[in-house]
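Page 42, continued from yesterday. The earlier attempt failed because a stray header line got pasted into the input along with the sequence. Redoing it now with the clean sequence only.
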Amino acid sequence: MNDTAIKICADIRKGMYKTGETLPNVDDIAEKYGTDKKLTREGIGDLVYEGVVERVPGKRSRVRVRAPYLWDLVTGSHSFTGEAKKRGQKPDNRILTFEKRPAWPQVARRLNLEEGDEVNVMERLLLADDKPVGLEYSYMPSKFYAGVTREMFEGGKSTFAVMETFGHVSATAIDELSAATLETREANILGLGVGIPVLIRFRVTLNPDGTPIKGSRAIYLFNPGYSVAI
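This time it went through. Structure tokens are written below.
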């Protein structure tokens, strides 16, 4: 980051600019910090990429201080239940929808399903100490989970624990990451603003012989960290 970005970031940490507050325009910031507009724009761009501020949807010339998430960085398997317990918090979930429906192409392709195969689709609001941590959609092939019900997942139960009751052990996972912005419904559920940039993770969970046993699409309110061998 350039010097202007560092100065703005320091003032944000001091509370000079509050969460959700729109920063002054480029001219005013440049004057305040004694720099030129080019360096100011570049510094603001650095802060956008660092996740300190975000563009106001529909008004790219304006930026606001980004709200801090309950969890900042989560490493490892990104298990919601495990992470909450590790932090001494109570994991819980609120199931918003639970239904069985034919797999649509995007899900069928990822889970190696045939045309007409059904999936149990569960949408959950994930909570830690009653505060939203994320929104997750699980896609469970019906042929692997005969008799599964929404009650099995209530009360913060781990999805993986329920899967094991059906004899499915998770061995590996493949993650796809993509950028998006919150739509109205999801923003209202999470208590965030429409248009806020988020990272979407689609995970395919495989059993030891490589068969896909579950898919999930998650909007997590934290930055997922990965460890790789190099």
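Notes: The two ends are 27 Å apart (CA to CA).
Reminder to self: strip header lines before submitting.
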